Amino acid sequence: MTRVSPEVPAGPAPSGPPPGGARPARLRRLVRVAFLVAALGFGAWAVASQWDEVRAGFARLSWPALLVSLVTVVAALGGGMMTWRALLADLGSPLPLRPAAKVFFVGQLGKYIPGAVWPVLAQMEMGRALGVPRTRSAAAFFLTMPVQLGSGLLISAVTLPAALPGSAAPYAWAFLLVPVLAVAFEPRVVNAVIGFGLRRLGRPPLERPLTRRGMLTALGWALLGWSAYGLHLAAILYELGPSGPAVAVFSIGVFALSWCLGIMTFVVPAGAGVREVAMVAVLSPVLDRGSAITAALCSRIVIVLGDLVCAGAAGLAARRRAVAGPDGSAPASGGPGSGEEGAGPGGDHSGGEAV
């Protein structure tokens, strides 16, 4: 006779993630904190190393001019974010605005750490939490660089001669890259290059190729960004002597060209030093050397402040959205809106604000 054991009633199922899942989450949080601490530390060092010159330069500027400069820098950084977001959307991951801003602006703090890999690594990691494949994040990042470079050289080649004839002549060699980059912007060329690189790395091809519309959208945002950067510099220049509408046009070309020269120097954090030297040289027709150095240093510090403002505001906005839910109400536990940024798994995101 077989003895039957009494049935033991099942207790409540354990809630929450398994114990083993807490360790990777803590590790990722620790890595992100270390990344932010390192980026902020190098950024602070860049300011402190030239503090005497920076303080003397700011003493020559009024508070309204500095405020206008900072506001236009924030607008310019927003143009850079929208450039990257347009490319990412065209590749198949149209992120909502606030999560996209957090990924871009927080990731961009990595440019203050020596080495060119930190921004892309940060964007790949944060994008993965939103369901964006790493290869797609990397492709959008590396496509943003030539888009910014080509649009910056193009707008400086137009604005510098228009504002001050002959001012662009010493830099004609840099403008030779414009037709080369124009060919490189053809989507068929871009897709072929990306496909070749992924095959060499043993990675699967991109699910969606880049389109001409997506590239033109990114170029449009990049041109708007350069215009805002120029207005940021013009607000500083107006305080140092030059005035008139031509100064604003000239400032767009000065900033775009000097920034492009900094972008070409990948081994220097955020183009530090190269951009300032180039800016002083391009400003020489309208400013004495001391005033040009003042303008370059003040511009540099305002941009650092703009990076911090954008990263902080984007992180706060994304956190509030994650807590409140997309419609302003608390998301249901375990539901599709309970993720960190309200983005579902997978590569394609159809919700959120339009591009």
Automatic annotation (TrEMBL):
Its membrane topology: Multi-pass membrane protein
Domain of life according to the entry: Bacteria
In what ranges is there compositional bias, type Gly residues? 334-355
Q: Which segments of the protein form a coiled coil according to its record?
A: none
Predominant location? membrane
Residue ranges for the region (Disordered) are 1-22, 325-355
Residues annotated as transmembrane: 33-51, 63-88, 138-160, 172-198, 218-238, 244-268
Leader peptide range in chain numbering: none
Does the keyword Transmembrane belong to this entry? yes
Keyword vocabulary terms for this entry: Cell membrane, Membrane, Transmembrane, Transmembrane helix
Q: Which InterPro entries match?
A: L-PG_synthase/AglD (IPR022791)
Q: Where in the cell is it found?
A: Cell membrane
Q: Which Pfam families match?
A: LPG_synthase_TM
Q: Write out the biased-composition intervals (Pro residues).
A: 9-21
Name of the molecule in the record: Lysylphosphatidylglycerol synthase transmembrane domain-containing protein
Source organism per entry reads: Planomonospora alba
